[in-house]
Amino acid sequence: MLEAQFVPKEAESSIYEFWLKNELFKADPDSTAPTYTIVFPPPNVTGVLHMGHALTCTLEDILVRRKRMQGFNTLWLPGTDHAGIATQMVVERNLMKDEKKSRHDLGREKFLEKVWEWKERSQETIISQMKKMGGSFDWSRLAFTLDENVSLAVRECFFRLYQEGLIYRDQAIIQWCPRCHTALSDLEVKFKETPGKFWHIKYRLKGEPSKYLVVATTRPETLLGDTAVAIHPEDERFTEFHGKEVMVPLVGRAVPVILDSYVDMQFGTGALKITPGHDPNDYVVGKKHNLPIINLMDENAVLNKEAGLYQGLDRQKARAKILQDLDQQELLVKEEDHSHNVGHCDRCGTIVEPRVSAQWFVKAEELAKDAIRAVETKEIRIVPEEWEKTYFEWMRNIRPWCISRQLWWGHRIPVWYCNDCGETHVAIHAPTQCQKCKSKNLKQDEDVLDTWFSSGLWPISTLGWPADSTDLKAFYPTSVLETGFDILFFWVARMIMLGMKMTGKIPFHTVYLHPMVRDEHGQKMSKTKGNVVDPLEISDRLGTDALRFFLSWNAFHGRDMRVSDEGVENCKFFVNKIWNASRFVLMHFEDVKKSNVDLSNEVNQWIWSRLNHIKGEVNRSLEQYRFFEAAQAIYHFIWSEYCDWFIEFIKSKEELEARKAAKESTAVEVLEEVLRLLHPFMPFVTEKLWQEMPIRDQQKISVCIASYPQEDSKRVFPKAEERLALVIRLIEQVRTTRGLHQLSPATEISLSVSSLAGESLLKDLIPFKELIKKLAKLKEIEFIHQEHGKQTHLSIVMRDLKLFIPKADLGDLTKELERKRKELQEKTDALRRADEKLRNERFMNSAPQNVRDGVVKQKMELKREVEALQQYLDDLG
RNA sequence: GGGUGCUUAGCUCAGUUGGUUAGAGCGCCUCGCUUACACCGAGGAGGUCGCAGGUUCGACCCCUGCAGCACCCACCA
After folding, report:
1. Is the dihedral of CA A579, A580, A583, A588 positive or negative?
2. ipTM of the complex as predicted
3. Phi-psi category of residue A229: left, alpha or beta, with phi > 0 → left and psi -120 to 50 → alpha
4. Three-state secondary structure readout of A96-131
5. Which of A264, A307, A308, A791 has the fewest Cβ atoms nearer than 10 Å?
6. pTM across the whole model
7. What is the pLDDT of residues A196-230, one digit of tens each?
8. C-alpha to C-alpha distance for A354 and A319, rounded to whole angstroms
9. Nucleotides on chain B within 7 angstroms of protein Cβ
């Protein structure tokens, strides 16, 4: 006998322990079974898991658990990511808070020790949270992006790409974060619409100070680094400046006026100052015209000695001072409001500064070619498919990927420079001496790699690449990559590019992109808004099963999903429903014989048939990653069919006794099977209940490895489905009609039943007479069968009314009358429309047979219904 | 500026090659503490499928235009 309630908090941890103890999640590289592999997107070791991780855990676990039950050799590989810049920031912030020290106070070594300590703690938390979510991970393969073998893979990859000329070092303008003191890739810069000003500034013609060009800029402080002013060659307003030089204000430097069609004549004043050192577009123009590059700022974006008088001021202060000075010298023509997009550091929100420096780059456009083709040929499928367009759009316009970061936490770039002769050595292992001058005085590049570089190798590095390991042979290419669409470019695209380049094979055949998690109002969750819903708190309070079911139920193919407490609570009710249904079944059928199913019984036929359809639906939906559809199908089956009808059917005293006496097992067997069907969604409660099932596969120690239900054509009984559907309709009709007829001593219900042949109708229903009587709560029931030509009418006479004479008043009655009249009107109209349709020649000629038949059938039914309604209203009125 | 989606019941969303009367969950209203479950049961109300045209015997679905919303990429100084 089960306890009255399922208490998730108490049950979950011991169930998880049971799974671990029996090593149910361990993949076997030597197995001959087909493999199914998912590599878990490694969470950053920055802190705790959020709802997005919970969603990932849930959806991937559903896929993995189902495949495992289907007999696949299943590997779900867990891991965590060092997350370079993000983690370094967190640790730096804590260091400042706790010890009032910067990382420079500690030095590189000591600081990294701190980060490792942090990583250990954070990873431990994350692992316990992944377990709490019920994730069936193979913990023996737990990986971290700074593990030795992962590092080796990173160096190997770097080396190979360098050998092929796909990695190179170059002086270029990159986005620099003055707070994080590092270069960023284009993707790590987020542009935000920011209100600003447009300042119009005079640039006097050299030698003729009365003549001048007016340049408009949003960043006057950069004029200190101007090395030209550009105008459009065809701009007639400025022809007299062609070939001349103008004076940069405040600086007193003469710079050429250059002609370039890049300039938009309509925009601003038509004259553009060129600052190659601090603007990506100007940099391009500068290169083209061989202009000098002036770097005005240091790593903190504070003006350096190039800025002359303004040295030592930061960007904002310099701007204010410069504007003031310009105004004083009457060089400031006007200022106007101008809202424009300003780049911010994705991590810390600081306004980035374009800066020229030497960095390492990957020629992504080369790698992208194969990656594009893989998706074009559908070798890699992206689900939902709409994302393919976005993927192509980005991949076809991909630009060089800046991979060096001026951080301490990460993979050190595997490049060594000779301090004596300056030679560059790119190597997998640190060289002991310079190849050119044999000096032993070598120094490794100070920078580390972009964290996404190692992430891009994740599917292969965790499986042992570059070694030709057994895991790599067995589990690569992996099956599905499931993640949020926000890291499609950061991560997924790069895994495809690097994976294909390194192994010649795609890393996974399917990419499933799940929606973004929002709060109940559709707002992004954020700490500052205070609307963050913590998955662990919810799981603690309402149960992991409820949370997981909620997440899968809401994993629509849209772009976001909303999480609400209320929603999860409703799923908790569903858990409770299953629990109680099981309680009922176990209470009565604890000692049934296995496979003792009476298939001559139509109620049994019906529930088996229904279950069978659901099995098919769930499997089909999951194959298409339609988690919501699968979840809804099971929910509907359990609640609205198994509980509301099947259990209610068998609950009547006689029925129940008969079944118990015969040890009839349908009730248990259907339940046992549906528990297996549901297990991937709700692993805990289903395990607990499955263990209680008197009939189950005793060979299997856990439902985790019991077989996953598949559609079985032998368990389809269309006749029974049809008849039971009729019975259900009948009972529903009795229930609805009954309240109305309180005033007459006996009531007749007429039911249209065109779907079954008339003659057998009565015979079909007789076995259900008692059932109907009970479920419709009638004291007396009588069937009357009437033939009207080709049509069959079934009338039910109910006697006994006092039972249901409720408190309905006359107001309800008139309302009901009103409704019935409206219904009659609608039905009559529909009948007329059907009639017209059947007289429409074109319809009869071009509509398919089944549609025409449908209309005929509909017309007949409507006709009967109209007659019945007419009769009914006449009686009443 | 370029791109991608979305607009269906009070809310969140399904609706798979155009085809009988457009669905679900929640919420709401009415009734019922019936021996698995009040974390329950029975019933009910609620939709001119964003707007305007077009194609078709027939359109939530296809085409055109418009409006509103969301997101991504670029960053014209």
Report:
1. negative
2. 0.96
3. beta
4. HHHHCCCHHHHCHHHHHHHHHHHHHHHHHHHHHHHH
5. A264
6. 0.91
7. 888 999 898 888 888 888 898 999 999 888 999 99
8. 16
9. 2-6, 12-15, 19-21, 24-27, 31-32, 36-37, 39-45, 56-58, 70-77
